[in-house]
Amino acid sequence: MKAGTESKTKLYMAIVLGIVAVLCVAWAVIPSGPASTVPQTVASGAKTQTAAIESLDPQLRLDLLASSENVKYEGKGKNIFRASTETEPIEQVKVSPLLGNRGKQAPQVYTPPPPPPINLKFFGLTNTKGEKPKAFLSQGDDVWIAREGDVVNRHYRVLRISPREVEVEDLLNNHRENIPLTQG
User: Fold this and answer.
1) Residue 148: CA count within 13 A, CB half-sphere
2) Residue 149 sits in a domain of what CATH number?
3) Is the pLDDT of residue 178 over 90?
4) Most-buried pick from 36, 43, 103, 163 (CB within 10 A)?
5) What is the average pLDDT across 112-120?
């Protein structure tokens, strides 16, 4: 039985490729020694500091940790976690049940504005035997024919259709409104 050494060029190529493979594996596995640093100059204002860019060495460098602990933050005195630097005291208003609120107004409570009205018009209805009723709805020049559960203009859902009105839900503002049947 032959070992495949009939062609000397194939044998030499296999030996060279084997050596290259062993070197590649050794280069990837064996660490390259101490962490390499590349000095880099960083300008901050008038001072120039030398910073070292570390490699991806996972060893804990206590000297760098100690130097970062000595750095003091010198901010401008603004608290970044508050909207303003000064806190305004909240005035407490006491109301006497007998005398009422004399001289001081009660603090106003913010109430969100009401949702905008649904500006659809209900102008007709079909009631074909064996089918669910359909409502004719318009908004400006646009006209839609919708059944219960349909979404009109990607904004309004038809909830209930009756001969005199249509109940519509505004999906963006979570608001329901009954739209009466109008002429013309």
Assistant:
1) 11
2) 2.30.30
3) yes
4) 36
5) 90
User: How many distinct structural domains can be found in the chain?
Assistant: 2
Query: Looking at residues 70-90, what average pLDDT do you find?
Result: 68
Calpha distance 27→50 (Å, rounded): 30
* Assigned token pair, 80: 């970044």
Contacts of 127 (CB under 8 A, 6+ apart): 133, 163
Rounded average pLDDT over 22-35? 79
Q: For residue 131, is it within any domain?
A: yes
**Per-residue CA distances from 175 to 62, 72, 137 (Å):** 62, 54, 18
Read off the pTM.
Answer: 0.41
> Backbone phi, then psi, for 119, in 5-degree steps?
-100, 40
Q: How far apart are CA 170 and CA 159, in angstroms?
A: 10
In a domain? residue 62? no
In a domain, 95, yes or no: no
Note down the domain range covering 6: 1-30
114 falls within a domain: no
The secondary element (H helix, E strand) that includes residue 28 is helix 8-29
CB 81 within 8 A of CB 98: no
